[in-house]
UniProtKB/TrEMBL annotation, chains A, B:
Pfam families: TetR_C_1, TetR_N. Keywords: DNA-binding, Repressor, Transcription, Transcription regulation. Residues 29-89 form the HTH tetR-type domain. This is TetR/AcrR family transcriptional regulator C-terminal domain-containing protein. Residues 52-71 bind DNA. The keyword Repressor applies. It comes from Actinomadura vinacea.
Length: 236, 236
DNA sequence: TCCATTCTCCTACACTGTTTGATTAGTCCT
DNA sequence: AGGACTAATCAAACAGTGTAGGAGAATGGA
């Protein structure tokens, strides 16, 4: 890795999508779309650390350095791939219903899309979300919240809470799922049981099977939406 | 003579803390504590990608491969450093008060500790939390929730929601904070404004300054706790 | 003393992201 | 038609990465 590279900093004046797209007359072998699609495929198969410029270039029948014409660096690649996942979420209908239902539908839809790509949760936690699809999400969520009566700081806070909860949950679920369940987790629960003095509550109330992530997610989602409902309209 | 200690190499099944600690008679130059402390220091200074085995070894006055006696790989290092950050959170008092207040205090305390180390949020999202300090947290949170009347699935879900919300928020805040505010973010808001047709709500309700993360966090926290309060005791 | 064990060091490998400059291939202007 | 221009790809090289395998030194017990 090159020395002194600022951590995760886009090299241009902004994110990938805000930079002018390089295109000319010649029909190119590469395009941002093809690159993004291939990156997603590799990420799905080999995970975040399995995506290298050379491997990606190979998959595209091209040499590694050619990618740098379309993309500033590896981080750009990750941004593009992540926003592509956001693009998988079905757009909320323009004909909106009860705002609580819309929010809930959005949250479960986003969760499912992110879970389809196990690398996406950690990435969404680690990088700011400013791709076009992510902005579409923000737009529709805020629209629903405005309908609910939110405004000002409470509006921003509510939108952030929704997004953060979903992404945090998915990241946690994916990170646990990446680990071997039969060994690591068993070792952990055994440890908790044998240290019941230190963890009395954990030992007395063993967590319901972690495999039931969806139930937990929906539970927490209901907690959050209930809280939002209680303070809708009373904001400033 | 080939050493037959291959079976007790630190790359056993499970997380670092569950593996037997290698220690002998000789007073070692290295220890997990020293390694962890140095790792945290480097992470604080140079971020996650700035922590390399060689740099860490240098900081400890030792050669890179020596680290592998105490630690299986780089991921172990990150796990240790992350749990050290969790250890910075002041333990909730044993003499508990209103459970809502205890939960709120825990959440803000955890947030502050994680924010002190900008790399921690992304890491906590990406890796399962099973270090001793993380377990201490889980224990005290669940204890408060049990007092509140939660049990079974709702208990697990509530604990997960709390943790996921805090970690998700901190990760988002840290990821935005890592980026240059005066260029990238301005480019983004300009983009939203110029595309007001596509983002009518975002353009009409521009987010309150992102710099006010704490207010947003506390807002969302109140949403969540309100929701928890509403369904406390009504669980199965 | 000898041995066994714990720990540190040395060498080496395959691989990484990225920079610099050369080389192609197509379009536009004359 | 022939240059000029430029977009796009390629080639070579650099500095650095995580980590495996084994050699060597330091210590304690027998």
């Amino acid at each position: 890795m090159s020395p002194k590279r600022a951590e995760q900093s886009p090299s241009g004046p902004g994110a990938v999508w805000l930079r002018e797209r390089r295109q000319g007359t010649r029909t190119p072998a590469l395009s941002i779309e093809r690159i993004t699609a291939a990156a997603v495929r590799i990420l799905d198969e080999d995970g975040q650390s399995g995506l290298s410029m050379r491997k990606l270039a190979d998959a595209l029948g091209v040499h590694a350095t050619s990618l740098y014409w379309h993309v500033a660096n590896r981080d750009d690649l990750l941004d593009l791939a992540l926003d592509a996942v956001f693009g998988e979420v079905e757009a909320p209908r323009k004909d909106p219903g009860l705002w609580q239902a819309d929010i809930a539908a959005y949250m479960t839809g986003l969760r499912e899309a992110l879970l389809r790509h196990p690398w996406a949760g950690a990435l969404a936690s680690a990088r700011p979300l400013m791709g076009p699809h992510a902005l579409d999400h923000a737009e529709s969520v805020q629209a629903a919240l405005v309908r609910a009566g939110f405004s000002g700081t409470a509006l921003t806070a509510a939108a952030a809470a929704i997004s953060n909860y979903v992404i945090g949950s998915v990241a946690a679920e994916a990170s646990w799922g990446r680990h071997d369940q039969s060994t690591a987790r068993r070792a952990l629960t055994d440890h908790v049981q044998s240290a019941a003095l230190r963890y009395p509550t954990l030992a007395a109330h063993p967590p319901t099977p972690y495999s039931d992530w969806q139930t937990h997610f929906e539970h927490g989602m209901r907690f959050l939406i209930a809280g939002l409902t209680a303070s809708a309209g009373t904001s400033g």
